[in-house]
Structures are given as structure tokens and as C-alpha cells.
């Protein structure tokens, strides 16, 4: 019986470590107004509207994406990045 519990625990930990949540670029608008952010994925581009206090996840930036928003310049970002901005020419990670 003890072997089955130990085996179950090891299996559960292995699943969590190797099958964790899918990674995505996370954009969070901490400001009080909706903001527009552009995502450049090479041949494909997106424009996202992010509401005040809201977050958006973007998939498909494993090789990197250009991200442009209210901080007035483009930033090269990858899937695991978390970008916070407040609607001013500032960016926080």
C-alpha cells in the first residue's frame, strides 16, 4: 500500500513539472484607461485592445515578437515575458 501512495505522489509531481501550463506572453494594463497594443509576429500582426486593469495572454511568440504600446517604442519579447504598463511612456516587467 505504501508503495502505491509513493508511486502516485512521484507520478503527480512529474506530471506537474513536465506538463505545466502552456506558456504565453502576458500583457497587463495597470492604468485606468483602455490601451492599444500591437503584436508583430513576423508575417502576422495583431492589434489588441486591453481594458483598464485587464490582462491578455498572447501565444505564438516562442521565437520572439515585437510589442508596441503606450510606451512609444517597440520591445522584443518572448513567450515567457510578463509586461505591465500603465498607459504612460513607461513599461514594467
What does this structure look like?
There is one protein chain. With 93 residues, the chain is α+β, with helices and mostly antiparallel strands. It has a single domain, classed as Immunoglobulin-like, CATH 2.60.40. It contains one helix and seven strands; from the N terminus they run αβββββββ. The radius of gyration is 18 Å and the shape is globular. The N and C termini lie far apart (47 Å).
Short description:
The protein contains one helix and seven strands; from the N terminus they run H-E-E-E-E-E-E-E. It is an alpha+beta fold and 93 residues long. The chain is globular.
SSE layout:
Blueprint lengths: L1 H17 L6 E5 L5 E6 L4 E6 L4 E4 L6 E4 L5 E4 L4 E4 L8
Parallel strand pairs: 1-7
Antiparallel strand pairs: 1-4, 2-3, 2-5, 5-6
Order of helices and strands: HEEEEEEE
Q: What does the largest sheet look like?
A: 4 strands, antiparallel
Enumerate how many helices there are, as a single number. 1
CATH class: Mainly Beta
The helicity comes to: 10-25%
What is the radius of gyration computed over CA atoms, rounded to a whole number of angstroms?
18 Å
Distance from N terminus to C terminus (CA atoms, Å) equals 47 Å
| Strand elements, count | 7
**C-alpha geometry:** globular
Average pLDDT, to the nearest integer?
81
For the biggest β-sheet, the strand order reads 3-2-5-6
